[in-house]
Amino acid sequence: MLLVTGAAGFLGTNVLRAAAAQERDVVAATNKGHTLIATAGLVHADLTDKAVVREMIGAIRPEWVLNCAALANLDECEKDPAKARAANVTAAGNLAAACAEFGARLAHISTDSVFDGNRGMYSEDDVPSPVNVYAMTKLESERAVRELLPKSLVVRTNFIGVPVTPGAGLADWIASSVESGKPIKGFDDVIFSPLLATTLAERLFDMMDARLTGLYHLGASDSMSKYHLAVAIAGEMGYPDAKIERASLSDVPSAVRRPLNTSLVSKRAEAALKTKMPTVLEAVKGFVAQRQELSQSTVTG
Q1: pLDDT the model gives residue 165
Q2: What span, in angstroms and rounded, lies between the C-alpha atoms of 47 and 53?
Q3: What confidence tens digit (pLDDT) does each residue in 214-257 have?
Q4: Most Cβ neighbours (<10 Å): which of 1, 52, 229, 239?
Q5: Do the beta carbons of residue 92 and residue 144 sit within 8 Å?
Q6: Helical axes 50-60 vs 91-102, angle rounded to 10°
Q7: Residues 134, 216, 227, 239: which is the catalytic one?
Q8: Nearest CA to 29 among 134, 111, 112, 99?
Q9: Counting runs of H as helices and runs of E as strands, what totals does the chain give?
Q10: Kindly report the CA angle at 44 between 60 and 154, in degrees rounded to 5?
Q11: 98 to each of 12, 113, 157, 229, how far by Cα in Å?
Q12: 230 within a domain of the structure (yes/no)
């Protein structure tokens, strides 16, 4: 039995899609009241409440808990650090403590943003240096999980995919803008190595099946700027002449500092899983295909 927390969110929804495709036995946990993907069960839980989390894990007795829950809105985290810490650190610690008590395994999702982005191609041996509240709390969550449950699995990653709400998320925002003919700007100095969200889920399942523990990076085998990501998505969708302009992160005033290059090295995971991570372009192709498939199923359904 797999318990997926944050199941109504962006990553959680894609995890449920991938789990359904593999016919895995899943219970979805959310504080939003619903999920878009049918599962074996649904529970509502406030992960910041230690007693609620303990009761949930004790009742379900999952073999694995996959924690996809997080407050990932950078501006919201910056404005309310206490809320960010509760959602990202307290919740993760509560899950780790309950898993330790009831003998469940925990896979905790962290972020490439724990690095300052000054050079990119970060491995697990590189020292994190977060530059905003979101990243700081995610790094704290890693430490809390590993302290309370030393044999946990912690995965730093980044991903694109089809979101819960159309137009949400970077890739779907790009795709929706391209379809509408809206001109957009893409940062050519912001570089990352995203996986397709369902591919990330599949690799996570592989890691759990292998009972891996410790810290791993899961990213594409190469990297790409967000400008080139937009160009690639437009091209894959059949809009090679889309209005995409190069821009720099410094062109956009923001109260939140953002790292420039958070690309990851995933050699540790590749060695453990005996497989090579896909490229960013493969993630783009998968995203466009999934988006079209889901759009068609919505129309015909």
Answers
A1: 78
A2: 6
A3: 999 999 999 999 999 999 999 999 999 999 999 999 998 887 99
A4: 229
A5: yes
A6: 40
A7: 134
A8: 99
A9: 11, 13
A10: 65
A11: 20, 27, 24, 40
A12: no
- In the residue annotation, 134 being an active-site residue is answered as yes
**Residue 72 to residues 88, 120, 130, 176, 281, Cα–Cα distance (Å):** 9, 21, 14, 22, 24
- Residue 2's DSSP bridge partners are 26, 64
Portion of the chain with pLDDT greater than 90, in percent: 89
User: Measured between alpha carbons, how far is 198 from 159 in angstroms, rounded to an integer?
Assistant: 9
The CA dihedral of 34, 13, 133, 158, to the nearest 10 degrees, is 180
Give the number of C-alpha atoms closer than 13 A to the C-alpha of residue 28, restricted to the C-beta side. Answer: 27
What is the C-alpha to C-alpha distance for residues 72 and 113, in angstroms, rounded to an integer? 11
- Residue 99, C-beta contacts closer than 8 angstroms, at least 6 positions apart: 57, 65, 105, 106, 149, 152
Q: Tell me if the pTM is above 0.70.
A: yes
Q: Which domain holds residue 158?
A: 2-165+194-224+260-281
pLDDT tens, position by position, 141-179: 999 999 999 999 999 999 999 988 777 899 999 999 999
Residue position matching structure tokens 């990243």: 135
Predicted local confidence at residue 40, as pLDDT = 59
Asked if 161 contacts 290 with a C-beta cutoff of 8 angstroms, the reply is yes
Q: What is the CATH number of the domain that holds 220?
A: 3.40.50.720
- Does the structure show a pLDDT above 80 at 131? yes
Q: How far is CA 251 from CA 24, 96, 116, 188, 243, in A?
A: 45, 41, 19, 11, 18
Q: Is residue 155 part of a domain?
A: yes
- Asked if residue 287 is part of any domain, the answer here is no
pLDDT tens track for 47-102: 999 999 999 999 999 999 999 999 999 999 999 999 999 999 999 999 999 999 99
Domain count, the chain: 1
DSSP state letter for 127 = P
Q: How much is the pLDDT for 225?
A: 98
Q: Is residue 100 part of a domain?
A: yes
